[in-house]
Task: inverse folding
């Protein structure tokens, strides 16, 4: 077998396994903590009170493993473009200095947020939705397992991002790993089903800028508005914030008395 093909297979297997295991371990841990161990303690931060059962979770795990495979292929593409000398992927940190590592991580995160907002918004077009985004929206009440549960075509839209930016500016594998870990953890948080932001976050100025689990859960619940990923800023600028979002976030992050198990921000309370 051609040595390049052998390396490509190794790159794929290592990446697929690490993405899949990261997903299974951390989504599993979040599920066990929030939906089992501290189910009662965290109940008042549950954005939609109902708790999805087995069929939804099985579908989400299956789709997420498919996504891990597609992301594995994207790493093979990044590696292959670099092998051909086409992209700006590099290994030697000294080439662009240590300072470039945090700076390029921030640039990558800001670009990713814009890529996510615009492609996500486009996927809500009726035709694209059917082929790209329907699988993700089958979950109206997301759980940690929803994190990577997207249709293969939607996963491909996200998977092209890293190979694409490696053509725009120098990308070190460390930055790639940092970015992938950050986007996974943020993705896990916004799908957890729980509002994890600090008390009174909804009344702070940060709420204008930073996205929250409430924002994304409302997107799943209603299918409209709140298209952003880690920043709320594109939704603010483009006027696509859900009209009820700010009020609901304030309700979710208010310090509630223990007796108040139902708040106006938590529909589906049983
Ligand atoms: Zn959507
Ligand atoms: Zn989602």
Result:
């Amino acid at each position: 077998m051609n040595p390049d093909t052998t390396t490509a297979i190794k790159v794929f297997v290592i990446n697929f396994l690490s993405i899949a295991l990261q997903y299974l371990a951390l989504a599993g841990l979040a599920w066990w903590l929030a939906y089992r161990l501290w189910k009662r303690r965290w109940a008042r931060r549950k954005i939609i009170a109902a708790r999805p059962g087995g069929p939804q979770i099985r579908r989400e795990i299956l789709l997420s493993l498919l996504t891990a495979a597609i992301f594995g292929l994207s790493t093979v593409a990044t590696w292959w473009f670099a092998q051909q000398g086409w992209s700006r992927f590099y290994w030697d940190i000294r080439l662009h200095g240590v300072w470039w590592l945090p700076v390029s991580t921030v640039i990558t995160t800001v670009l990713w947020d814009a890529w996510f907002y615009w492609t996500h918004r486009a996927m809500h077009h009726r035709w694209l939705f059917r082929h790209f985004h329907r699988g993700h929206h089958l979950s109206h009440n997301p759980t940690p397992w929803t994190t990577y549960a997207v249709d293969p075509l939607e996963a491909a839209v996200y998977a092209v991002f890293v190979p694409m930016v490696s053509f725009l500016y120098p990308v070190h594998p460390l930055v790639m790993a940092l970015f992938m870990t950050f986007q996974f953890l943020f993705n896990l948080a916004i799908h957890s089903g729980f509002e994890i932001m600090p008390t009174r976050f909804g009344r702070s100025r940060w709420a204008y800028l930073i996205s929250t689990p409430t924002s994304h859960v409302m997107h799943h619940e209603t299918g409209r508005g709140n298209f952003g990923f880690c920043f709320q800023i594109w939704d603010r600028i483009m006027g696509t914030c859900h009209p009820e979002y700010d009020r609901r976030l304030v309700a979710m992050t208010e310090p509630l008395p223990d007796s108040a198990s139902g708040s106006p921000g938590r529909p589906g309370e049983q």
